[in-house]
Predict the 3D structure of the following.
Amino acid sequence: MRLKISLLKEPKHQELVSCVGWTTAEELYSCSDDHQIVKWNLLTSETSLIVKLPDDIYPIDLHWFPKSLGMKKQTQAESFVLTSSDGKFHLISKLGRVEKSVEAHCGAVLAGRWNYEGTALVTVGEDGQVKIWSKTGMLRSTLAQQGIPVYSVAWGPDSEKVLYTAGKQLIIKPLQPNAKVLQWKAHEGIILKVDWNSVNDLILSAGEDCKYKVWDSYGRVLYSSQPHEHPMTSVAWAPDGELFAVGSFHTLRLCDKTGWSYALEKPNTGSIFNITWSIDGTQIAGACGNGHVVFAHVVEQRWEWKNFQVTLTKRRTMQVRNVLNDAVDLLEFRDRVIKASLNHGHLVVSTSLQCYVFSTKNWNTPLIFDLKEGTVSLILQAERHFLLVDGGGIYLHSYEGRFISSPKFPGMRTDILNAQTVSLSNDTIAIKDKADEKIIFLFEASTGKPLGDGKLLSHKNEISEIALDQKGLTNDRKIAFIDKNRDLYITSVKRFGKEEQIIKLGTMVHTLAWCDSCNILCGLQDTRFTVWYYPNTIYVDREILPKTLYERDASEYSKNPHIVSFVGNQVTIRRADGSLVHVSISPYPAILHEYVSSSKWEDAVRLCRFVKEQSMWACLAAMAVANRDMITAEIAYAAIGEIDKVRYINAIKDLPSKESKMAHILMFSGNIQEAETVLLQGGLIYQAIQININLYNWERALELAVKYKTHVDTVLAYRQKFLETFGKQETNKRYLQYAEGLQIDWEKIKAKIEMEITKERDRSTSSHSVKNLGLKH
């Protein structure tokens, strides 16, 4: 990826340009110390003077009123705020009319920023004050006062906090009074510019110490650059939070959100005082010290999938290369390319007006449909369909171009969704809520309606990243997520009535990805790269989960690596310095998944015998129990030396009725409640009581006996025997109440139990004979 710079031969301004701001993706306003506001039209390459300001107004900062937020379009999108050296800020219309000038600070007003909703304006000045204003320019509050100038300011993603500079310090102050203020030393020199991204919640700062830094919202440094030759005069996040740009003297740099640099350009600009990204995130404009306005297009982005590599060579041209046979195809577009995604055998490209869907089998005839909104901010792909996110909503389309659904929820803000907060599978869409970060919304892909009974997935901590598995049946769909404590959890997506368990899979997990061809999960855990060959094991037999893992040392990936993709058995990891590392994992677990999904149990056993790896046998054991195939489970458990489980499986096989077998398989997986329900529904009351006695669940055993008016004496007899073994006295009031005046006769109880077992055996025999009769007829 690099920047394609365009700079006019002669500057349009006579003095330094202090600030620039985009109105659309093709139109920009620039303000200069020559008191002129100039409009640039990039389509026609024309410039026009909008207004000449009075000679005493030297502009410093410009910010356009936000155009839209989520579903709501604002009416006042045709105006901007301009701060100036005379201590005022000016509300100016698009046509250049000064609607209002407000005395704001003593000394220059160094920065002014609208919040995301357009309901408030923050200004900072040389007098060290931070002030909040209404959108009509009425003073609401003075948020802070300090003895040194505040050079830059930015709103937090929820518009409830403000970040501002104080010399070498950065300060985050919430708008609520008495809320905790976060302050830390960020640079060795005065901080000149800050920016805070609403999508990734990361902070940028640039200072006179010639460094730029990336911070999280808690003030922890994620990246610190090497010192440059000159002070860093400007920084700005791209709207989607994936890239940022840094400006300095004769320098423009394009960087990844983790800090490493994609491209460095040295245009003849003087210092770049202000950088702003176009709404669609494809180009940058910079306000230059020598009167120029520099434009830079982001080109040469790359997308890779299996043997295909797609490169954006120009604004409207892509090159597709098949590395197997070196075939090259050129794709031409009518408008500039904004976003693209290559996965699952399809390339999806959104331009400013249309969406193109190419199949990797045929690059000549794309499927094209028009977009409602031009600026697509995110494309996600699944095997059957893809998801587009823009300023207006979330839209699911099939690869044939057919619109499928558009999920919605109250307070939805599509402008802050990214690949970590939205996940897509063949049947489910998961979206992490921004208003309450402990909640995940789950939608049915085909209808866009809430999944199951409409209950939300709620966790005890804030969630930072979510991912749906890609294969298997809808009823078995799982979602994995990482919370703020860096713990990895897994839970089922289908939620009807009963509360699904959210189970912890791992700790200190920084990044995760599901395989695109089978349900294998990988993640980077502290200093280890871990692959969960069969994450479902946690629901089946938690004890053998460690045996189903593959782990290797991850220290070679350096600090803060990120998993880019997991295709087939190849995992791509991006290191902190931007280099890509490809890790191959064993192909055998994927083959095992394939055999099991087709119920080819004999082939699965044969594969495990061939590979001779404990992890394969452990996976097969868990898969067999999950699919109720106890013969395969017995072989697999024997192979990994779990003798106690082999004996239990043998005992299950000898049980007379299918209800009992089913219940004991459920108990094997730890689902006691479900096992009891199966027995009760099958009319096996005594067996339901017996499993509670075996588990020393005395309260429940007595409750069932009393409820069904049977075997109360049996429960009391076992309870008495239990107490005698440990030399204890009965203290439970219910047991004392029912035991009063009751003589326990073990002979009688044993006879009753024998009768129950015979009755169960007879039932299963009669059901078998009925089936056989039916077959004969």
Remarks:
- The radius of gyration is 33 Å.
